[in-house]
Write a structure and sequence with these properties.
Strand order of the largest sheet: 2-3-5-6
Oligomer: single chain
Largest sheet: 4 strands, mixed
Radius of gyration: 13 Å
Distance between the termini: 24 Å
Structural class: alpha/beta
Helix content: 25-40%
Length: 99
């Protein structure tokens, strides 16, 4: 189901779009999770009740989508963000770098 959401984002991105916003990254993830964006530290945090393995998988899938979109010219702007997945209690479950 996650692959379908990422595919839809790729299809919905106009050919003239050259950037991917942090808000777009939030929209790629499960809407049941809370997403927050910290522009000062370039960090996107996804908070929700999930297992460690699911958090790691979500991180890898999101990274794959961002890298794939960069290959077709759609880059994350501003560049270099961190994506954190955490529990509702604030425990970090996974973190990945989005180039």
């Amino acid at each position: 189901m996650k692959v379908q959401a990422i595919t839809l984002l790729l299809i919905a991105t106009p050919a003239w779009a050259e950037t991917l916003s942090p808000e777009s990254i939030c929209n790629m993830n499960d809407p049941a999770f809370k997403c927050s964006i910290d522009n000062t530290s370039n960090t996107i945090t996804i908070t929700g009740d999930m297992s460690l393995s699911r958090a790691e998988r979500e991180c890898e899938e999101t990274l794959g989508a961002v890298v794939g979109m960069a290959k077709v010219g759609v880059r994350l702007d501003p560049a270099s963000w961190y994506l954190n997945f955490q529990s509702p209690a604030g425990k970090r479950l996974a973190r990945c770098y989005l180039p």
